[in-house]
């Protein structure tokens, strides 16, 4: 971190300010130019807030040279992180470092037939995880809120029947007691900056799928991951799921550039959700291919056996047949990228 001191500041004041900074655990390099003094902070500056420094009466400008996230930062962990999820038979399903994770299933669990039927079809087509929401964050309190505990039981039945590991959303920390057999805990876009929840998840030992908030920057997403990692849980999968922009042709705007950006800045795996990003079933296969071509480590795709009658997000859900055709193409893309599904 570099601090430019206001011109004309007395040496005595700079000395006192330097002592204050050193008390916060950093070394201070002093450099006096003809018109301006610059202080360079060396050491762990994560606990020093730029805003509070900027507010100091001696400070003209503060520039952070290193990112405020450490654990999620590739600079401190150059190799790609791979998340290994144990499945039946002593095998693992991996995401990251050359392995693609393909999560597929309905937006929400509706009935036993629906979730088990979809689970069997997507497994047949090559999905490596089953998705499905039991607790749903809906914009309207009058919309279907998910089946809750019953939905969780049905999801677990589908897991038992197919052997597919499951990913499902947790909306509040008290729900965690129901997540014992859940393989990946999803933190939805609306909760990406629920810092109390993130801190609690830092203490749990399950992989977390962290979705990007729809008005959040790349750095904010990485800081959200840092919250979980600072608590001791480093099994995080980042998910780009579209952000809000001025155009409403698509439900959100898929920020494909987030994939190389996140992978450059962080070692964590990055997956893409083309369903919530576009809101349009017909566009999902195209954007799924684009995401893999841009270097994503996997996808989370909404698949429904009867999209027209889905209780949630039917217009963006592809059919099991469409998912099957997509998987055929994705295997070719994966081979081109030298990745395995
Ligand atoms: C979902 O995956 O069904 C969901 C609600 O996603 P998001 O949090 O990205 O909107
Ligand atoms: Mn959905």
UniProtKB/TrEMBL annotation:
GO terms for biological process: aromatic amino acid family biosynthetic process. Keywords: Transferase. Its EC number is 2.5.1.54. Gene3D superfamilies: Aldolase class I (3.20.20.70), Phospho-2-dehydro-3-deoxyheptonate aldolase, domain 1 (3.30.70.1140). The keyword Transferase applies. One of its GO terms (molecular function) is aldehyde-lyase activity. It holds the Pfam family DAHP_snth_FXD. Residues 94-332 form the DAHP synthetase I/KDSA domain. SUPFAM superfamilies: Aldolase. It is an enzyme of class 2 (transferase). Residues 1-67 form the DAHP synthase ferredoxin-like domain. This is 3-deoxy-7-phosphoheptulonate synthase. The lineage of its organism: Bacteria, Pseudomonadati, Spirochaetota, Spirochaetia, Spirochaetales. The gene is aroF.
């Amino acid at each position: 971190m570099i601090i430019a001191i206001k011109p004309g500041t007395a040496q005595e004041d700079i000395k006192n300010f330097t002592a204050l900074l050193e008390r916060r655990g950093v070394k201070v390099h002093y450099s006096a130019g003809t018109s301006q003094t610059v202080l360079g902070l060396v050491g762990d500056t994560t606990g020093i807030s730029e805003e509070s420094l900027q507010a100091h009466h001696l400070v003209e400008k503060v520039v952070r040279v290193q990112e405020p996230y450490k654990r999620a930062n590739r600079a401190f962990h150059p190799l790609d992180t791979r998340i290994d999820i144990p499945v039946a038979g002593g095998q693992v399903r991996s995401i990251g470092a050359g392995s693609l994770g393909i999560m597929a299933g309905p937006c929400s669990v509706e009935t036993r037939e629906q979730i088990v039927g979809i689970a069997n079809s997507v497994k047949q087509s090559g999905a490596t995880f089953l998705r499905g929401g039991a607790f749903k964050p809906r914009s309207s309190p009058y919309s279907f809120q998910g089946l809750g505990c019953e939905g969780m039981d049905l999801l677990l039945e589908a897991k038992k029947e197919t052997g597919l590991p499951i990913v499902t959303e947790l909306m509040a920390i008290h729900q965690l007691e129901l997540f014992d057999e859940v393989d990946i805990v999803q933190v939805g876009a609306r909760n990406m900056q629920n810092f109390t929840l993130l801190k609690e998840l830092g203490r749990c030992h399950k992989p977390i799928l962290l979705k990007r908030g729809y008005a959040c920057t790349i750095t904010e997403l990485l800081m959200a991951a840092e919250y979980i990692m600072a608590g001791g849980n480093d099994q995080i999968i980042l998910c780009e799921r579209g952000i809000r922009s001025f155009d409403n042709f698509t439900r959100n705007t898929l920020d494909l550039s987030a994939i190389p950006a996140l992978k450059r800045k962080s070692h964590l795996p990055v997956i893409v959700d083309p369903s919530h990003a576009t809101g349009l079933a017909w566009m999902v296969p195209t954007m799924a291919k684009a995401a893999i071509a841009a270097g994503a480590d996997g996808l989370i795709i909404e698949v429904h056996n009867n999209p027209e009658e889905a209780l949630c997000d039917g217009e963006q859900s592809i059919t099991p047949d469409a998912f099957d055709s997509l998987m055929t193409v994705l295997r070719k893309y994966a081979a081109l990228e030298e990745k395995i599904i």
